[in-house]
Design a protein that fits this description.
By secondary structure, the chain is mainly alpha-helical. It has a domain of 267 residues. It is built from 22 helices and no strands. The N and C termini lie far apart (54 Å).
């Protein structure tokens, strides 16, 4: 019976066009990416404003609508951030994408962009695993990528930059591994214009190019920093401070040493938090050490972890998502492909959704302030409780 079922399935596949059969994994993974976000939103379907209000969605909504220059003195978010210059900490590429799709409605565009970028990142990661890194079980590992770690599932489903950034990093690496250093550097520049840690791509590529004796391509790496430099110039024009982006981050970089914020946690009696961050660093470091044969991904992660381990913030588990596809998925590919993990994965995926459903409502802008924001931005018609 089982044999006849397999033969029937094989005959059905034979009737499908070859192009459709070859794209079946991508179609399935794209569906899984979209379905994941839909399930995150499911408990809030009748009150999607809860999803729109998750930080930093309201800030990016403001930037997308005003392009920094049209922020009014009575913007209600100033109750949180106090000065209009704070909005310059939100780099422009993601809000520009939101503005480009604003014909859907600004709130809808916040989520549409992250889902679209997640699908693109999923397909790029699958192609890197299958075609570039030649990793077995590429489809399975890409499916795991959509749900590991849980915070990635959360931030690829709300108005945030993670999905856009990961998409750009993966696109840049895909181009670089195919010898297109100029295009890879240009895309990396957009990544840096999404999250500033994207500048770490430049030294990573430089190391790889030197190892491969491709010295003539090194000047292309200037493109990684050009978009960010132009943005800093825009900040200087608008605020008189070339480093307006960095000003709100002074507390995070005041002690630029590895694990520099742990003493503060001990002083507050948060020793269990300190243990979590130590274990988090260990898991990422071990994962990175296991991808040394993949030179470009390894170099990128080394520079990323050297940067982030010195940033004094309790947001490590979010900031380190920039390395997660490489350190956690590629790094632990043998463990994640094991029979034991395949059996446990549904439980883990369910717990990821439980994490999102529990976290999402408690990290939001107050509803009264958000409704005032929609009025302030001239988007009152979009507001639905």
């Amino acid at each position: 019976m089982l044999s006849s079922t397999r033969m029937s399935a094989a005959r059905e596949r034979a009737f499908l066009p070859e192009g459709v059969r070859s794209l079946a994994p991508e179609i399935g993974l794209s569906f899984a990416a979209v379905a994941g976000s839909l399930l995150v939103w499911l408990p809030f379907w009748g009150r999607m404003t809860t999803v729109y209000r998750v930080w930093d969605g309201p800030n990016y909504l403001t930037v997308a609508r005003t392009l920094y220059t049209g922020i009014r003195d009575d913007n209600p978010l100033l109750a949180y951030v106090y000065v209009k210059s704070y909005f310059f900490v939100h780099l422009p590429f993601y809000p520009l994408l939101v503005r480009a799709f604003s014909f859907l409605g600004y709130q809808h565009a916040l989520l549409f962009v992250v889902v679209l970028c997640t699908v693109a990142a999923t397909l790029l990661f699958y192609r890197l695993l299958r075609d570039v890194w030649k990793v077995p079980a590429a489809g399975w590992l890409t499916l795991v990528f959509l749900f590991l770690p849980p915070r990635w599932l959360l931030y690829r489903s709300v108005g945030s930059t993670e999905a856009t950034y990961i998409m750009l990093v993966l696109a840049s690496l895909h181009l670089f591994e195919r010898g297109r250093t100029g295009a890879a550097s240009a895309v990396a520049g957009l990544a840096a214009l999404t999250r500033i840690s994207g500048v770490m791509i430049a030294p990573a590529y430089a190391v790889v190019l030197l190892q491969r004796k491709r010295w003539r391509e090194i000047p292309w790496l200037v493109l990684v920093g050009v978009p960010l430099a132009l943005y800093f110039g825009f900040c200087w024009k608008e605020t008189g401070n070339f480093f307006a982006y960095l000003a709100p981050h002074e507390g995070k970089t005041s002690r630029f040493v590895p694990f520099g914020f742990l003493p503060q946690l001990f002083e507050q009696g948060l020793y269990h938090h300190a243990e979590f961050y130590i274990l988090l660093a260990l898991v990422y470091a071990v994962g990175i050490s296991r991808i040394r044969e993949h030179e470009t991904a390894f170099a990128y992660c080394v520079f990323e972890i050297l940067l982030h381990v010195c940033v004094s913030t309790e947001e490590w588990s979010r900031y380190w998502l920039a390395m997660a596809p490489f350190a956690l998925i590629l790094g632990y590919r043998d463990i994640l492909s094991s029979k034991a993990f395949r059996w446990l994965f549904p439980i883990f995926a369910l717990l990821s959704f439980v994490y999102c459903w529990g976290t999402l409502p408690i990290n939001t802008c107050r509803e009264d302030i958000y409704s005032h924001l929609m009025w302030n931005l001239g988007l009152w018609k979009e507001f639905v409780r």
